[in-house]
Amino acid sequence: MALWQRDRSQQVQSGLICHSDAGSQYTSIHFTEHLDLEGLQPSIGSVGDAYETALAESVIAMYKTECIRTTVFHGDPFRTVADVELATAGWVDWYNNRRVHSSLGYIPPVEHATAHNTALNRDRNPHESGKEPEALQVA
C-alpha cells in the first residue's frame, strides 16, 4: 500500500527502507526477493531488543484506541472479520492522510512527505524552482 500510495501521488520511490523485526516472514527468501524487485532496502531489527519495537507498539496502541475501542464503545461492535478489515483500512487512510502529528509540526504525514519531496525536487532542479543558478567564481 505504501508503494501504491507513493506511486499515485508521484512521490520519490528510490532509497526507501522496509523496517521490520526478525520474524520468519520478514527473513524469508520470498519476502526479500519481493523487496529487491520493488527496490526497497531491508532493515531488520536485532533479536530481543524491545526498544526497537517501541514505535510500532505506540502505533498499535493508537490503532486500538482510535479505531477498535472507539468503534466498540460507541455501540457499533464488529460483527465480522471484514468489518475489522474495513475499519482498519479506513483508520490507516485517516492516520496517513488527515490525522495531524505533533512530531511533524501538526500536519498530516502526506503533507509532510509532499513538502519534503518538493524540497528534494527543488534542490535537484534549481531551474524549475524559478531560482537563477549561482554564477561560477573564477579565480
From TrEMBL:
<feature type="domain" description="Integrase catalytic">
    <location>
        <begin position="1"/>
        <end position="116"/>
    </location>
</feature>
<dbReference type="InterPro" id="IPR001584">
    <property type="entry name" value="Integrase_cat-core"/>
</dbReference>
<dbReference type="GO" id="GO:0015074">
    <property type="term" value="P:DNA integration"/>
</dbReference>
<dbReference type="Pfam" id="PF13683">
    <property type="entry name" value="rve_3"/>
</dbReference>
<dbReference type="InterPro" id="IPR050900">
    <property type="entry name" value="Transposase_IS3/IS150/IS904"/>
</dbReference>
<dbReference type="InterPro" id="IPR036397">
    <property type="entry name" value="RNaseH_sf"/>
</dbReference>
<dbReference type="InterPro" id="IPR012337">
    <property type="entry name" value="RNaseH-like_sf"/>
</dbReference>
<dbReference type="GO" id="GO:0003676">
    <property type="term" value="F:nucleic acid binding"/>
</dbReference>
<protein>
    <submittedName>
        <fullName>Integrase-like protein</fullName>
    </submittedName>
</protein>
